[in-house]
Amino acid sequence: MIIKTRVFELNHKHHKNLSELAQAMGISVSQVYRVRQGKRYINQKFIIGAMKAFPEYKLDDLFYFAPESPVKSTRQALEKFTSATEYMPSTPRATPVPS
To answer: What is the Cα–Cα distance from 38 to 4, expressed in whole angstroms?
Structure first.
């Protein structure tokens, strides 16, 4: 399960753009943008900021849980693994010392 937000739907009623939303939340515009694009997960700082920016809403109104797509998460894990190993220098294997 992952946490999702309704902040961006509510944002249009309260703020002109993502910069105003980020300022009201007390976080960077890039963090807000990345969460919106799905490139970053929602963290504690984002949740606290949303509660500050939308004090008239309850936590349940701002956030909800959704199942994470197993294909997407497997693909992301594979991409991370592949990109991490691409740039690893090959290490020589230890050879046994004859006794």
So the answer is: 10
Two tokens, residue 48: 């606290």
Domain ranges of the chain: 2-68
pLDDT greater than 60 at residue 35: yes
Q: Alpha-carbon distance 46 to 49, whole Å? A: 5
CB 29 within 8 A of CB 19: yes
pLDDT at 60: 96
Nearest to 24 by CA among 10, 39, 43: 10
For residues 59 and 46, is the Cβ–Cβ distance under 8 A? no
Q: Which fold has domain 2-68?
A: 434 Repressor (Amino-terminal Domain) (1.10.260)
pTM for this prediction? 0.67
